[in-house]
């Protein structure tokens, strides 16, 4: 009975702060937008629940991670948080309703309530104050951080972090084996439920545990250290299968965030006085202007004031150890939330040495540790205040946090004509829903795929395979011959278009199977005659290379300068060498120390070519901070395909990702050496200064273009020496983030 009142309070708070979601749980989505992360999480949840009900063994053998997006990639569920724990819990509701939107909304509301109850339990257990428990529960469950991330369902899983500290305190205070086991299990569940909170919570446990041990004078106690080690070992064992899978996918695909990417999504000091637009008191009135979902972190004046009081009283009283632990956690969270532009040496060290930390895209989310510490400290601050005054303070704080979403997104249709047809048709095969989106516009097709569960080329997630952009750009030209070749080689069976496609030939491989208001379905049916015609399609081929002006042993070294914002700085070094057998080209790139502070690179790229300077194998060995990526590409010129894998052996295996390639296509390195052999037009030579020397050079202006320009195009100019060697002496690039100038500084023929 003692939990009915807080349960009722937090349920009411959840209803108010998501109003009118409770009235329309099937027609509204608990998010302020639909396409994008909400649809992504809707798909993730639906995929997980359907798998739990149809193939529960897939959760054990890992097959569930081979989800149906980004075909033909594997392990795509691991491109984001998997939500499998939540999917297991919600599977009974889905089995009854078959409504993934209802389950999504139920999870959102349950997450808000469960998080508040978990913090309520922590404060009641550790601090021993009922008003403080309500204050902390409401702050933790319904504060600014929570609704700044309303579109991120995975970040609502804040129910395990307070529980880990409940059992940490019990472990420190007693000798029960049960507390050791529970701490390990709950810490593991926290990591399994969310990659972010696994890392954030793990670091908080280390900092808080050490501070607690020091505060109670037991940091040298062997028994306590053993119990902590046992709990950590148990958590590591439970998390290991999932962590290993994520690590393998990240290594195979080259995923990871560098310091530059992290800095773009870090908090700044003023973020801690900003609120979401839906905050009634400060957001809707514009008093604390919001600046984005990663920077709306204001905990409230009442909570801050009470936390200061709690820290002072607790330090002077009987709660010094807890205060010390919370201060350590708050400082850790605040420093890390500022990202690499805060305390850079500390952040860079954690980024390099802590397992999984390179997955952190938004350091601002470490601010949740500041909120966590403030909740506990504020509970200490309110503990000795008169109960009647305490109730008033809780009410005032609740007004500060009161949030009403400006507008909730309409739920997507879960039953579409196209989706139902694909679910019922007996012909098996992957689907491409056109146009293939490169960003959030891919998510409606993902939600629709829950109806038929066929593999789809479309995809959107926290990461994406490197082949997706070129494949999507090619297929989006459907029904061009290039798009048909890509669809044929990828073994795509169905194409869904918005409008009917008129055939350009009397017989085409795409046959209309169904036409609905939401799309036209084409089936690709290949006959030997159509395949022969496709293979014979005329494609503009580059001319054969001219006389080769380089030989084995050539080595050119360059200095890279970056100019922007009125400065011109040395950004790194590049070397380009020619090795045997004829020819193996090797490019090495290293960033300058000042650049390495936010983007460290020690990369090696190699290309082996044949006598026509056509690439046979291209390999990448990229060492960028804590991110180490190896990738190989094997070119099959006769088959007009390129295969990729982690190693050359992987790229040659049957399971390798295989993509179409235009005849006589070259990678960038092979293309550079090929260009040096071509007869260049007279009159394009001029005197330039490179490496402090005046050089007679030939100017080339290559055109770099995409079928879909979603960013400023790169403008480049290349100068080759006007001599028999035709060595590149200067490259000038303007990519929108400044001007990059690559100058030759030494050359050995």
Largest sheet descriptor: 13 strands, antiparallel
The dominant shape is: globular
Between the first and last Cα atoms, what is the distance in angstroms? Answer: 85 Å
Quaternary structure of the protein = single chain
- The share of residues in helices is 40-55%
Helical stretch count? Answer: 25
Mean pLDDT: 90
Q: Which consecutive residue ranges, at least 5 long each, have pLDDT under 50?
A: none
Structural class: alpha+beta
Placed side by side, the strands forming the largest sheet appear as 14-13-12-11-10-9-8-7-19-18-17-16-15
Estimated radius of gyration: 29 Å
Q: How many DSSP-defined strands? A: 19
Strand content: 15-25%
Total discrete domains: 3
Explain what this protein looks like in three dimensions.
With 749 residues, the protein is α+β, with helices and mostly antiparallel strands. It is 43% helix and 17% strand. The protein has 3 domains: 4-30 and 99-401, no CATH class; 417-535, no CATH class; 555-748, outer membrane lipoprotein receptor (LolB), chain A (Clam). Helix 8 packs parallel to helix 10, helix 13 packs across helix 14 and helix 14 (320-337) packs antiparallel against helix 16.
Q: How would the blueprint of this fold be written?
A:
Elements: H1 4-17, E1 28-29, H2 37-54, H3 58-61, H4 84-97, H5 100-126, H6 130-142, H7 144-148, H8 160-173, H9 177-193, H10 195-215, H11 222-253, H12 259-264, H13 301-316, H14 320-337, H15 344-353, H16 367-383, H17 387-401, E2 409-410, H18 417-424, E3 431-433, H19 443-452, H20 468-475, H21 481-489, E4 494-497, E5 510-516, E6 519-524, H22 528-535, E7 555-564, E8 567-579, E9 584-591, H23 593-596, E10 602-609, E11 615-624, E12 627-636, E13 641-645, H24 648-652, E14 657-660, H25 668-677, E15 685-690, E16 693-700, E17 715-721, E18 728-734, E19 739-748
Parallel strand pairs: 3-4
Antiparallel strand pairs: 1-2, 4-6, 5-6, 7-8, 7-19, 8-9, 9-10, 10-11, 11-12, 12-13, 13-14, 15-16, 16-17, 17-18, 18-19
Helix pairs in contact: 1-5, 1-6, 2-4, 2-5, 2-19, 4-5, 5-6, 5-8, 6-16, 6-17, 8-9, 8-10, 9-10, 9-11, 10-14, 13-14, 13-16, 14-16, 18-19
């Amino acid at each position: 009975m003692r939990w009915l009142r807080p349960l009722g309070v937090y349920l009411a708070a959840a209803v108010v702060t998501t109003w009118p979601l409770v009235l329309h749980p099937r027609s509204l989505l608990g998010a302020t937008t639909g396409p994008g992360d909400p649809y992504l999480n809707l798909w993730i949840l639906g995929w997980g629940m359907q798998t739990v009900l149809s193939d529960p063994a897939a959760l054990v053998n890992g097959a569930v991670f081979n989800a149906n997006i980004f075909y033909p990639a594997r392990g795509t569920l691991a491109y984001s948080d998997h939500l499998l724990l939540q999917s297991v819990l919600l599977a009974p509701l889905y089995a009854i309703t078959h409504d993934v939107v209802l389950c999504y909304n139920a999870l959102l509301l349950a997450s808000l309530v469960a998080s508040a109850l978990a913090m309520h339990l922590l404060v009641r257990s550790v601090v021993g104050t009922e008003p403080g428990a309500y204050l902390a529960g409401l702050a933790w469950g319904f504060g600014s951080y929570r609704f700044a991330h309303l579109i991120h369902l995975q970040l609502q899983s804040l129910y395990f972090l307070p529980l880990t500290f409940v059992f940490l305190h019990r472990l420190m205070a007693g000798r029960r084996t049960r507390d050791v086991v529970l701490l390990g299990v709950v810490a593991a569940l926290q990591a399994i439920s969310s990659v972010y909170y696994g890392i954030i919570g793990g670091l908080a446990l280390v900092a808080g545990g050490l501070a607690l041990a020091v505060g109670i004078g037991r940091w040298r106690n062997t028994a306590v250290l053993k119990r902590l080690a046992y709990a950590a070992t148990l958590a590591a064992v439970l998390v290991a299968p999932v962590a290993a899978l994520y690590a393998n996918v990240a290594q195979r695909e080259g995923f990871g965030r560098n310091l530059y990417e992290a800095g773009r999504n870090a908090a700044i000091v003023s973020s801690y006085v900003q609120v979401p637009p839906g905050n009634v008191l400060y957001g809707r009135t514009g008093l604390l202007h919001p600046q984005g979902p990663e920077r709306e972190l204001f905990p409230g004046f009442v909570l801050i004031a009470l936390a200061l009081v709690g820290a002072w009283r607790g330090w002077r009283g009987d709660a010094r150890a807890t205060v010390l632990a919370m201060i350590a956690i708050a400082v850790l969270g605040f420093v890390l939330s500022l990202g690499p532009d805060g305390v850079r040496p500390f952040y860079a060290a954690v980024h390099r040495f802590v397992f999984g930390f390179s997955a952190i895209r938004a350091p601002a989310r470490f601010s949740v540790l500041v909120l966590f510490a403030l909740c506990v400290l504020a509970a200490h601050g309110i503990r000795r205040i008169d109960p009647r005054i305490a109730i008033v303070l809780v009410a005032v704080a609740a007004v500060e946090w009161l949030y009403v979403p400006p507008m909730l997104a309409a739920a997507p249709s879960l039953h579409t004509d196209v989706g139902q047809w694909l679910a019922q048709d007996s012909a098996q095969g992957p689907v491409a829903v056109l146009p293939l989106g490169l960003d959030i516009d891919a998510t409606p097709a993902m939600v629709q795929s829950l109806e038929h569960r066929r593999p789809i080329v479309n995809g959107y997630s926290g990461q994406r395979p490197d082949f997706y952009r070129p494949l999507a750009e090619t297929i989006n030209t459907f029904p061009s011959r290039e798009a048909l070749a890509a669809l044929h080689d990828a073994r795509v069976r169905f194409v869904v278009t918005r409008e009917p496609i008129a055939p350009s030939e009397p017989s085409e491989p795409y046959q209309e199977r169904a036409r609905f208001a939401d799309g036209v379905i084409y089936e690709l049916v290949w006959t030997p005659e159509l395949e022969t015609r496709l293979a014979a399609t005329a494609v503009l081929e580059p001319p054969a290379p001219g006389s080769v002006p380089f030989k084995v042993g050539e080595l050119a070294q360059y200095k890279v300068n970056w100019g922007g914002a009125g400065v011109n700085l040395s950004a790194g070094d590049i070397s380009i060498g020619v090795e045997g057998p004829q020819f193996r080209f090797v490019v090495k790139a290293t960033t300058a120390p000042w650049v390495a502070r936010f983007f460290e690179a020690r990369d090696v790229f190699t290309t082996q070519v044949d006598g026509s300077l056509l690439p046979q194998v291209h390999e990448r060995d990229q060492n960028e901070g804590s991110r180490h990526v190896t990738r190989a590409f094997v070119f099959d010129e006769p088959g007009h395909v390129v295969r990729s894998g982690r190693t050359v052996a992987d790229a040659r295996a049957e399971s390798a990702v295989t993509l179409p390639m235009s005849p006589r296509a070259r990678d960038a390195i092979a293309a550079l050496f090929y260009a040096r052999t071509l007869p260049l037009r007279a009159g394009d030579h001029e005197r330039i200064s490179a490496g402090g020397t005046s050089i007679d050079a030939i100017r080339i202006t290559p055109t770099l273009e995409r079928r879909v320009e979603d960013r400023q195009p790169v403008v480049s100019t290349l100068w080759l020496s006007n001599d028999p060697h035709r060595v590149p002496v200067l490259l000038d690039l303007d990519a929108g983030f400044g001007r990059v100038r690559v100058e030759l500084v030494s050359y050995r023929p």
